[in-house]
UniProtKB/TrEMBL annotation, chain A:
Keyword check for Isomerase: no
PROSITE patterns linked: PROKAR_LIPOPROTEIN
Signal sequence coordinates: 1-31
UniProt superkingdom: Bacteria
Residues annotated as transmembrane: none
Keywords: Signal
The protein's name in its UniProt record: Sugar ABC transporter substrate-binding protein
Name of the gene this protein is made from: cebE
Entry keyword annotation includes Metal-binding: no
From TrEMBL, chain B:
Record-stated family: Belongs to the binding-protein-dependent transport system permease family.
Domain spans labelled ABC transmembrane type-1: 96-312
Full protein name: Sugar ABC transporter permease
Biased composition (Basic and acidic residues): 337-346
Membrane topology, from the record: Multi-pass membrane protein
Region (Disordered): 1-22, 325-346
Pfam families in alphabetical order: BPD_transp_1
The keyword Cell division appears for this protein: no
Residues that span the membrane, as ranges: 38-59, 100-121, 133-155, 235-255, 294-315
Keyword Transmembrane helix: yes
Xref: PANTHER family: ABC TRANSPORTER PERMEASE PROTEIN, INNER MEMBRANE ABC TRANSPORTER PERMEASE PROTEIN YCJO
Phylogenetic lineage: Bacteria, Bacillati, Actinomycetota, Actinomycetes, Micrococcales
Compartment annotation: Cell membrane
Key words, A-Z: Cell membrane, Membrane, Transmembrane, Transmembrane helix, Transport
Amino acid sequence: MLTHRPSRPARRIIVAGASVAALALTLTACSSDDGGSGSSKTQDANEKITLTVATFNNFGYTQDLLDSYTKTHPNVTVKQEIAATSDDAKANFTTKLAAGGAGLADVQAVDIDWMPTVLQYEDKFTDLSDKSLDGRWLDWKAKQATAPDGKLLGYGTDIGPEAICYRQDLFEKYGLPSDPDKVAELLGGKDATWDKYFQVGEQFVAASKGKVAWYDSPDGTYQAMVGQLANPYENSDGTPKDLSSNADIKALFEKVATESKDKGLSAHNQEWQPDWTASFQKDAFATMACPPWMTASIETNSGGVKGWNIANVFPGGGGNWGGSFLVVPAAGKHTAAAKEFAAWLTAPEQQLAAYKQANNYPSQVEAQKDSAVADSTNKFMNNAPVGKIFADRAAAVTVTPFKGPNYFTINKAVTDALVAYDVQGKGSVESNWNAAVDAYKALGLG
Amino acid sequence: MTALTTAPTPPRVGPPEKRRRRVGFSQRLSRWDVKVSPYLYISPFFIIFAITGLFPLLYTGWVSLHKWTLIGGEAGYTGFDNFTAIFQQSEFWLSLRNTFMIFLLSSVPQVIIAIVLAAILNQNIRAKTFWRMGVLIPYIVAPVAVGLIFGQLFADQYGVINTALHAIGLPKIGWHSNTFASWSAIATMVNFRWIGYNTLIFLAAMQAVPTDLYEAAVIDGAGRMRQFFSITLPQIRATIIFVVITSTIGGLQIFDEPRTFDVYGTGGPSHQWETTTMYLWNLGWGPQQNLGRAAAVAWLLFVVIVIFALINYFVSSRISTSEARRGTSKQGRGRRSSTDRKGAVR
């Protein structure tokens, strides 16, 4: 076998064809026509059914919590499927959605980053509007899950109102006020602006003689700033704005690029890369934009480095980063029961239990006011009163950025250019902006 | 199978016509058996291939001629628009360049190192099985795990390699920012995984080389190097061709290693290490969800691989014929020299 000499070109072509075909195979798995119609399928109220809820990472839904639903609804058994990462969950979600919704759980947890897909294909999801639930969530949270025609497609679980996490020890070392209230004041308190934030950063970096950067990454900072624009890349009707003439974005890009590299405020890392993770243990930077779930990442990445604290302040007003929803795919067998269950699971009582379990800051107004949340502190963050801080930060959020179907594509074009300039040290601000515009043009969005 | 064709001659009894017909039928049966059964035996492969290979291949062609989104499905016939759009994307050409360079940087050293390793393992060394199994260990490590480990090695600021370089006073290498460095790093990951596998294939081929060739060479006074170049290499030529072809096909479809080279898996902010298969993936399953264009890229990649396979074929058939010619002339020379020597001894 090993010494035989392949003799026919055709065979080689078949082999090549087979291997390409294997690729092609993955493509075909995705053709579909939509089976789900919006109609809710009602069934006998006493019929024994099993509902599945698909989540990722740690939503804090224990089996005990889910079992307690069976006590009030004896005919319903609840099973949870947990994906390890949100990327895994997203791949699973989009693939099954592409296959017409077969195999999706009755209740699906959806990260805010995938909501544009849900809103774009609203027919594939059950309308969850319910008058009795009005006012349960913060307005901007409900708005993130509302389709243009007014349908509510998802029930909010947690949110990511941003504060500023900072290294108290490094602030002290380089002569900045280190007390959280003083830091909030230093950055401008209620009227904190990004200009002020960068200005203090320049002082800090000068004081540390360039040894310690001001913030972790250019893309994290840009992300926080872009999240405060109402229509960053697209008009509210979903049509994309031409990036080459998008003055707001160009100004943000130039600001972050110059401050990060030319003024040396960033630690020159890209978020989530191994270097970024490692930088937490190297005293590489002193501040970062910080939603509640980020405190857990900081704690994990710091691995023994203490001295973190949270300042109740955020430049440019409030900002939200992350958070999730529960949606009910229309292809499910028990959409009515699933809707009822999703409403129960996102009720304040259940979200309080989840907060205790996983520290996911609730989006429900009632839950935020509950002492279990409002009075909570974070030991790793120097016992910062996170319950109060994030309630204030959530209340400060005024703008919900419009994220249409092309948000992430265009956003990637801009952050790629930012990373190329600051992290990888390529070209100039101008040439990288042009690269972003070229990448946008290549999308052919018109 | 030949046993079935030689039916025993029946005894000459009974009416002649009947006997003739019976013999004729069983003979026909056995003739069919000879002619048809081989195809029957290999047919499962082709049937399965038609379902899992040919059909998707053609279907992908169909998709590539339409506007087609991942979730929304078909949205109208567009002719060759997807293809012309792809041709205008610099990202596509960059991805071809990256694929080709990573392929070169991985396949060439891979085959050379594997042959050398196999030659060493083919010697009389202690604990043979241990070493032979040892080279295969990287192959059984999951590619994603390899990606994670190499991610720590090749991190730009705090990676193991750059820390070591810095410690001995050398400049750090921008593994992710420098295009060529990123190709080399990915090629290292590929080589780490595939060298052992190819070594074992070469080793198997080397063990099939008749030992009398080496004995004759030793009598002729050929050294180790001469034996390696004049006997081992020509004898395993067919295997080399096989490995070159499989690694060409694999190399042009490279996906896992560049995808796990950073946590985003999109090929770098300036597409430094985005290969064509990654480009395909990013188009279809990235935020664009454009299956029509992804299908067009799949077809273009198919064409590229077919072209490479053809080049491989012509080059390797040229090599094999010229090698054969050289082989005979060498034999002739060898015979002459040995008779000369015999004469000299006499």
